Amino acid sequence: MKKSLILITTSAIIGIGTLTNLCYLIIQAKVNKKNGVYIGLNWDGFFPNYSQGTW
């Protein structure tokens, strides 16, 4: 029971952080009069790097 509660709490914290970041990007795009947001991967040789921003 205790392990599942820790897992659910950790997942909720990660989910809230991701949702907050997405909302921040959307607000930033709107304020700066951009067309939208992008989320993707840039490859550096063998390694993927997370990228995000407005366009």
How is this structure best described in words?
Helices cover 55% and strands 29% of the residues. It is an alpha+beta fold and 55 residues long. It has one domain (2-54). β1 and β2 form a beta hairpin. The protein is flat. The protein starts with a helix and ends with a strand.
User: Approximately how much helix is present in the residues?
Assistant: 40-55%
Largest sheet: 2 strands, antiparallel
- The residue-averaged pLDDT reads 87
Count of all domains: 1
List low-pLDDT spans: none
Please compute the radius of gyration using only Cα atoms. Answer: 16 Å
Number of helices: 1
Instruction: Output the structural class.
Output: alpha+beta
